Amino acid sequence: MENKHVAVFAFPFGTHFMALLNLVLKLAQTAPNCSFSFICTQKSNATHFNRPHIPKNIKAYSISDGIPMSHAQLANHPIEKVNLFLKTGPQNLQKDMPQDLLIVGERETMFSRTLVSLAKVLPQAKAVVMNLFEELDPPLFVQDMRSKLQSLLYVVPLPSPLLPPSDTDSSGCLSCSKSVAYVCFGTLVAPPPHELVTVAEALEESGFPFLWSLMEGLMDLLPNGFLERTKMRGKVVSWAPQSQVLAHDSSGVFVSNCGANSVTESVCGGVPMICRPFFGDEGVAGRLIEDVWEIGVVMEGKVFTENGVLKSLNLILAQEEGKKIRDNALKVKQTVQDATRPEGQAARDLKTLIEIISTTS
Questions:
Q1: In the predicted structure, residue 7 carries a pLDDT above the cut 90
Q2: Same structural domain for residues 184 and 333?
Q3: Distances in Å between the alpha carbon of 194 and those of 113, 188, 221, 222, 229?
Q4: Residues 338-358: pLDDT tens digits?
Q5: Helix boundaries (H) for 105-235
Q6: Which residues contact 298 (CB under 8 A, 6 or more apart)?
Q7: Are residues 320 and 253 in the same domain?
Q8: Are residues 189 and 139 in the same domain?
Q9: Confidence at 10, pLDDT banded by 50, 70, 90
Q10: CA-to-CA distance for 184 and 179, rounded, in angstroms?
């Protein structure tokens, strides 16, 4: 079973979960080079994966139980709970995939057709370059891609934070104390107005210092008096030097849409993330951040709620429970630094890319 990957779907009711988990525990100990993805509901996983000595080659992945937030009373109706879980099955398997990959027939978009065309021609390319570090992609994914492509190279345009960070702050944006929440959703899209208000209210309620880079045209959407009430511990600017912010020692968490560049800069800075994906590959990035690298959390339902933002800020910035996330972010940062050294994989792939470009007629 060497280098194999086994997906385990556990029926989350009765004794099915424990029976299957006990079997997987035995398999994982017998086959340490085999990876097991244990897929069940959040409630079941949280209950049973807190036990000590879970083998490192078992990873729990949580899916929805299908019970609406407003139907807590269903806890006393086991048959209804089973029906809802089975009904939500297809959505569980699709929710982290970019929507354009799921659109077929008359609902196809130009973007979805482009993705299909790319999938057909990529195997013909002499090399496909990934804007990520190989060490951060799941090994089975790398192995599968390498079996389909002529050459797969991981070459990241490295941001300046990989250089020793400076204590100076010419921008005036980084003068806050430690454990600052940095908020930015990029320049392409933004959360809907009610979610922007929710983020502002959560930042105000949390009491944490913050820096928010918000597009100029969205400033008027902030709650009345918000800027005045938070001016002693927070700052809202129309632009911030993001890579410098995330490299600064004061940055404690990055609230983001988890776009590719933002993820790279946050990883390089060792900063945990609170993610609210919008579209494209951001949902996949959120899954990597929360479930694979374990350096952050994704908003429940991929929507900002005041309670959700408060809970996430407290988890990462203040609670002992969030120490694992904070420690993992630093470990990933070290992995990235190792990869970018002259003898690292990223440096070697860059040399290979230069050779391919130089010798291709």
A1: no
A2: yes
A3: 33, 18, 9, 9, 19
A4: 988 888 888 899 889 888 887
A5: 110-121, 139-148, 193-206, 226-230
A6: 275, 276, 277, 286, 287, 289, 290
A7: yes
A8: no
A9: confident
A10: 16
Report the phi/psi class of residue 225: left, alpha or beta, with left for phi > 0 and alpha for psi in -120 to 50: left
Task: Tally the domains of the chain.
Answer: 2
Q: Which of 196, 242, 247 is nearest to 217 (CA)?
A: 196
* Cα dist from 79 to 74, 76, 82, whole Å: 9, 9, 5
**Token pair recorded at residue 187:** 């320049």
CA-CA distance, 192 to 129, in Å (whole number)? 34
194 and 46 within one domain: no
pLDDT of 86 above 80: no
Domain check: are 327 and 351 in the same one? Answer: no
Least confident of 49-53, 86-90, 236-240: 86-90
Residue 132 · residue 158 · CB < 8 Å: no
- 199-245: per-residue pLDDT in tens? 999 999 999 999 999 998 899 999 999 999 999 999 999 999 998 99
Q: Which residues contact 208 (CB under 8 A, 6 or more apart)?
A: 179, 180, 181, 233, 252, 313, 317
Residues facing residue 212 across a β-bridge? 183, 236
Q: E strands along 80-167, which residues?
A: 128-130, 152-154
- Structural domain span for residue 38: 4-160+340-359
Q: How many CB atoms lie within 10 A of CB 198?
A: 20
The answer to whether 28 and 49 have CB atoms below 8 angstroms apart is: no
Lowest-confidence segment of 44-58, 95-109, 148-162, 317-331 by average pLDDT: 95-109
Q: Which two tokens stand for residue 270?
A: 């060792």
- With respect to residue 274, please indicate whether it lies within any of the assigned structural domains: yes
Sign of CA dihedral 26, 32, 35, 40: positive
Query: What number of H helices and E strands is found in the chain?
Result: 15, 11
Do 126 and 246 lie in a common domain? no
The CATH number linked to 301 is 3.40.50.2000
Whole-number Cα distances in Å, 247 to 15, 164, 209, 236, 324: 48, 9, 17, 19, 20
CA angle 323, 290, 134 (to 5 degrees): 105
If asked whether residues 139 and 190 sit together in one domain, one would say: no
Tokens of 228: 């005045």
